[in-house]
């Protein structure tokens, strides 16, 4: 997902699109000054300090200064569950939605067939989801989810109508006889109602396009798919394949995920559009896009010899603009394939579908609302002159096909696996197109957006979403990891193998860290933990004498075992040192002012004294 707001003065968009922009926290300007970590920070240098007067000040003397422009972020944080002692308790709803409870864990999803009718006039949805799952344990109950605002018409096991208990969005379905471990069960979940427009993306919106025609879209990543259809609404378990059938009034088209199978005139003024998804898919990726779309397309020859269908659906009046702007899509796919391997969903194809919000990574059906302009909503929002060279939404949202859709986090808490990696993919796209220097420049533009107020990995099992730092800090951490590996040929091989190892899997941060430890032979756990599980980034403490000749150094970090090489000295003549959280020293001919740290290669703070 990408849905950051623009600075207030830049929010002006054509009136037709005004409805698409929901006010969101402004981006931060200027890097936040953060307090240095408390633990391990007050160690004074050994007696061999160059000058006693220059002893390191205990860290913690800096404080975060809340600038006026931070306010929107602070507002946002109120809505993001903090991990600290002042954390608000999860609600009953959060626990039911966020936990992988016993009635979720006792079964494994195999298949959905979402088969619904959408009435634009009544803003009404009705139909059923056929749900097939395999029991992993004996049991008589499973947990599904559907927002309380929608009505359950009936739940059938064959001819038998099943009993159920609704509890704050959860639907506990009870079976008359024990289902046994290994048993494959198919139920039909009938429902109907008016989906509430809710959440940052609207959930399910019944809008009109700029020409006044019906335009109905879904986007529900944070809110959850159960706001518009019944499913097992969590991130850990996915179906293995899915069919999506959507009946809409004649003359309208529904574009959903997967491969287009057929359209059938139902003879009652409605036409059903059938789509088939041949892969696992996150619930929130399932999407409807109903409108008066026109279609154009192309094919990409894959290295394997396969042909990737690339299909585009836009409003008729935007066809020419779309043909020009979407010409970036092929180059994007080629760039990501270069680093990670083939597009993950070749059987389903790749689609871009115009939608009335900025964009969302709906699997094989990326929705697009970036005004057919480069940058983000026409703005170079990283302010370093790179972003205006490409369409931010095409590059970002499509990157999620590899990280987010193919590799998925098991809990929203670990969503940096989607957003940190995909933001890093943006920088890879820049590197592929324009070289490493521009990639570093682009990366530098991410730094002012990092708040460092909370850890990136949020609380697990309680429906908690991480802060925006998961994007920028996540990407900057991965770039730091490249420098730690210290060998680009090795780095490219590791990146490729990492993706290939975990593709089509749902994983957690621990899986990522264990893989990198195993394949680099390094203990990277303290590095990952410092960046992901603490608010602050590591700070390199440098202690100079009165004359050049010697500098003492150590990391100030929350992780006692934090140890990370870093390049220091003078650009072009960098020297790699291996600081830990204990003081060491090195000789240098450079003065305090001339002594530099390669902060474009390592995302660290530096404190010279
Ligand atoms: Zn994203």
Question: Could you characterize what this model shows?
Answer:
- This protein is α+β, with helices and mostly antiparallel strands and 609 residues long.
- An 8-stranded mixed sheet has the order 5-4-8-2-1-11-14-13.
- Residues 5-86 have low confidence and may be disordered.
- The protein is globular and about 90 Å long.
- Helix content is 22%, strand content 28%.
- A hairpin with a 5-residue loop joins strand 25 (566-569) and strand 26 (575-577).
- Bound molecules: zinc ion (ZN).
- Residues 1-2, 396, 400, 419, 422 line the site of zinc ion.
- Rounded mean pLDDT score: 88
Separation, N- and C-terminal Cα atoms: 42 Å
Low-confidence stretches are 5-86
CATH fold-level name of the domain at 101-292: Immunoglobulin-like
Query: How many extended strands?
Result: 29
Q: Give the name of the CATH architecture of the domain at 101-292.
A: Sandwich
DSSP strand content: 25-35%
Main structural class: alpha+beta
What Rg, in angstroms, do the CA atoms define? Answer: 26 Å
């Amino acid at each position: 997902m990408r849905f950051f707001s623009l600075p207030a003065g830049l929010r002006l968009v054509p009136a037709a699109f005004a409805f698409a922009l929901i006010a969101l926290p402004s981006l931060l300007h200027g890097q936040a000054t953060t307090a240095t970590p408390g633990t391990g920070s007050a160690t004074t240098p050994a007696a061999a300090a160059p000058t006693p007067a220059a002893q390191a000040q205990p860290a913690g003397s800096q404080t975060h200064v809340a600038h006026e422009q931070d306010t929107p972020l602070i507002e946002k944080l109120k809505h993001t569950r903090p991990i600290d002692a002042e954390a608000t308790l999860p609600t009953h709803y959060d626990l039911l939605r966020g936990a992988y409870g016993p009635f979720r864990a006792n079964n494994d999803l195999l298949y959905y067939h979402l088969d619904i009718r959408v009435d634009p006039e009544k803003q009404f949805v009705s139909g059923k989801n056929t749900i097939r799952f395999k029991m992993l344990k004996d049991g008589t109950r499973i947990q599904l989810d559907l927002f309380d605002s929608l009505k359950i018409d009936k739940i059938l096991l064959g001819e038998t109508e099943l009993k159920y208990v609704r509890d704050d969005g959860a639907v506990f379905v009870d079976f008359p006889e024990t289902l046994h471990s290994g048993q494959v069960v198919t139920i039909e979940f009938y429902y109907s109602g008016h989906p509430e427009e809710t959440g940052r993306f609207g959930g399910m919106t019944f809008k009109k396009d700029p020409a006044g025609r019906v335009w109905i879209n879904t986007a529900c990543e944070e809110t959850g798919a159960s706001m518009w259809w019944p499913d097992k609404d969590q991130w850990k378990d996915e179906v293995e394949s899915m069919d999506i059938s959507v009946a809409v009034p004649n003359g309208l088209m529904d574009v959903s995920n997967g491969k287009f199978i057929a359209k059938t005139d139902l003879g009652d003024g409605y036409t059903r559009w059938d789509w088939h998804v041949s892969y696992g898919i996150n619930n929130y990726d399932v999407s409807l896009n109903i409108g008066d779309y026109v279609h154009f397309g192309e094919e990409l020859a894959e290295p394997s010899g396969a042909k990737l269908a690339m299909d585009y659906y836009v409003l008729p009046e935007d066809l020419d603009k779309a043909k020009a702007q979407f010409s970036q899509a092929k180059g994007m796919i080629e760039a990501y394939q270069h680093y990670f391997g083939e597009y993950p969903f070749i059987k389903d194809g790749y689609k871009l579908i115009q939608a009335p919000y900025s964009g969302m990574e709906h699997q094989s059906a990326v929705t697009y609302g970036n005004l057919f302009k480069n940058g983000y909503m026409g703005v170079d929002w990283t302010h370093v002159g790179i972003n205006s060279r490409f369409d931010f939404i095409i590059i970002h949202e499509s990157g999620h096909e590899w990280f987010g859709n193919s590799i998925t986090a098991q809990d929203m808490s670990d969503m940096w696996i989607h957003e940190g990696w995909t933001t890093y993919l943006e920088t890879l796209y820049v590197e592929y197109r324009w070289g490493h220097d521009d990639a570093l420049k682009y990366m530098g533009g991410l730094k002012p957006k990092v708040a460092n107020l909370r850890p990136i990995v949020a609380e697990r099992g309680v429906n908690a979403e991480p802060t925006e730092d998961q994007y920028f800090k996540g990407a900057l951490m991965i770039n730091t990891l490249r420098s730690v590996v210290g060998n680009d040929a090795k780095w490219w091989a590791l990146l490729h193998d990492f993706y290939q190892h975990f593709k089509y899997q749902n994983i957690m941060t621990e899986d990522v860290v264990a893989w990198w430890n195993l394949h680099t032979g390094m203990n990277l756990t303290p590095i990952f933990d410092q960046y992901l599980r603490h608010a602050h980034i590591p700070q390199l403490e440098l202690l100079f004498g009165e004359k050049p000749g010697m500098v003492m150094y150590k990391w100030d970090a929350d992780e006692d075992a934090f140890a990370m090489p870093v390049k220091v000295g003078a650009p072009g003549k960098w020297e790699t040192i291996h600081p830990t959280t204990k003081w060491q020293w090195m000789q240098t001919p450079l003065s305090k002012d001339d002594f530099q740290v390669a902060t474009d290669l390592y995302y660290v703070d530096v404190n010279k004294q």
